[in-house]
Design brief:
mainly alpha; globular; 364 residues; single chain; 71% helix
Amino acid sequence: MKRIKILDSCRGIAALIVVFHHVYTRCTYLYPQESTMKIHGLLNFISELNGEAVLFFFILSGFSIRLSLKNGLPIRKPALNEYLYRRFKRILPLYLLALCFTFVCGLLIHQTGKPDYSIRSLLGNVLFLQTPVSYRGFWFAPYGENGPLWSLSFEMFYYLFFPLFIFAFVRLFKSERFTGMQEKMVLGVAFVLSIACILANSYFFFPYIAFARFFFLWYCGYFLADIYIKGAVRPDANFMTILFFCAAVGGLVVLRRSDSLVELFKGMVILTVFYFLCILRKTAAAGIMVPVEKGVNAIFFHLGKGSYALYLLHYPVILVLKSFAHVNLPVIVVTMAVLAFICIQLEEFFVRQKFPFLRLQYIR
């Protein structure tokens, strides 16, 4: 399928928000107090979109997985092995590089004696068991205080869980092609699974239960992409289904407020807006969207092509910059711009590599 440039641009915007958040919150001396700077409120608002940016990454991840399934669902051996190879090729090389880079930055700022740089922490991150330190009872923190690494364990879980999840329904429905009603049933099961994991996680912590809390959001991205590919993106029963689940999560937030439910609700609102924009893109309003897309792509498309690397590598660089007393804003901006350029080149290089050692018969 032809590359949808606006998806890369969206990744670029989301990555930029995450980078800005970490500069803004870790280098507070750069910004005057709120009483002396009216723009402080706007900067604070953009910074607080950090969580929403990561949720949007999850939606885009599910959406992109559906676009990439050229050989059908990953449930038969050849298709599943190809699926796993493509996912590992996409995630692992840059992720392992990020772990090494984080350690090197830790050496530069003399922080490797901390527990977050320990062999135990490294092992937990290699096994994709890290979660945010704000999670009660967490097992492993992101390696070397590289906070953004927490979301990679969620992504890897979704990649590995998805074939098992969808295989169960192929066996149940005895077909790889689901009807509209069956697709909504699968969506409903994903919803129940995530809600059950949110409730369970409030009583005890287990990494895979914590990861599954947002699987519904990821699968909604997959669901939307499936509709998009079929050319059926319109304000119909599918859109109403998403609105229903958005309202259902909102209702649960009112009945039993928790941070996870609030995050899931925010994600559903983002998904609904994303769905609506997809509708505009495919309908008569497309004429309006074309110049908007061109403008957004002109600014953010190339950044989006390096967004994964930038997401992984920016935080250790910020920690190194912060170790120097009062590094000024122009230096930080130039450093981040150079890093972004390097990340674009780096990610394009990694995409071109075949990494044959990852092309294994995972399922025999």
